[in-house]
Amino acid sequence: MILGQRLERFLFEKGFENPDVRRLVRNQIVLACGLSLVLMLATLFHPWALAFCAGSALATFNFWYMVKAVQKLLYVRKGAVASLLMLFYGRLIITVLAIIALILWCDVSIVGLLFGLSTVVVSAITWGLANVVQKVKEA
């Protein structure tokens, strides 16, 4: 079984039931892990590559839990907005504390960290473009 199918099955077992959502999370995981691995091997574990890995791991962690929470809250009738806001700000505070710790105590490269964090943006853009191209082909 190829890696994509294993990852799809793993994500389905973890509660990502919508195929589009699963594809989006899968793309983020593959992009973050793939780029991290390539950068680590290409730069021989340069500190910038380590910062990229930390940023992409943090972005993937945030993205995972955001998508999981939104997927569950779509079916809640009362209190969904308050729950979503609490989850969003809770995750935001944890992310900020992690970024501060990485920069101040671990002395990671800020640029590498930002590039790692931006993997989620690249993943979302590629997913969106793929959906647009697919809809254009269907029309």
Description:
By secondary structure, the chain is mainly α. The protein has helices at 3-13, 19-43, 47-73, 80-104, 110-117, 119-138. It is built from 6 helices and no strands. The mean pLDDT is 87.
Broad shape: globular
Q: Taking Cα atoms only, what radius of gyration do you get, to the nearest Å?
A: 17 Å
Oligomeric nature of the chains: single chain
Report the average pLDDT across residues. Answer: 87
Task: Present the secondary structure layout.
Blueprint: H1 3-13, H2 19-43, H3 47-73, H4 80-104, H5 110-117, H6 119-138
Question: Which terms summarize this structure?
Answer:
139 residues, mainly alpha, globular
Summarize, please.
By secondary structure, the chain is mainly α. 83% of the residues lie in helices and 0% in strands.
